[in-house]
Amino acid sequence: MTAVDMYTSMFRLGEDGAVLAQERRTTPDLEGWTMMTLHVERDEDAHPEVWEQHTQGDEVTCVLSGGVRVYLRDEADPRDPEGELVAHLGPGSAYVVPRGRWHRLELDGPSDIMAFTRVSGTQLERRTGW
């Protein structure tokens, strides 16, 4: 039996129910469901300057320790690309970002975060003013 370091590895969840642990990477060519755990110390570690959206599935963002804010672009006013809605997450809480919804993270302090999503098709967009 070998333990897996969740901070340097990722888990790929197969359609057949199999789970594969492998070295973590964030390339957009990853097919299927992926689970990653991250330790983030500063906002810069969570890339607050970039909006992202996952076109192939929802994303579950879980906070294991610390606290984060999940920002969603406010789709109610398409004229304001920086209009934002926010969900505050503390230890033991999670938020489901709907498929195709632009989102980003900021930290309340050093945190451990676990995220489940389908990485393939992820799009990134730099925030205005960064």
Automatic annotation (TrEMBL):
<feature type="domain" description="Cupin type-2">
    <location>
        <begin position="50"/>
        <end position="112"/>
    </location>
</feature>
<dbReference type="InterPro" id="IPR011051">
    <property type="entry name" value="RmlC_Cupin_sf"/>
</dbReference>
<protein>
    <submittedName>
        <fullName>Cupin domain-containing protein</fullName>
    </submittedName>
</protein>
<dbReference type="Pfam" id="PF07883">
    <property type="entry name" value="Cupin_2"/>
</dbReference>
<dbReference type="InterPro" id="IPR014710">
    <property type="entry name" value="RmlC-like_jellyroll"/>
</dbReference>
<dbReference type="InterPro" id="IPR013096">
    <property type="entry name" value="Cupin_2"/>
</dbReference>
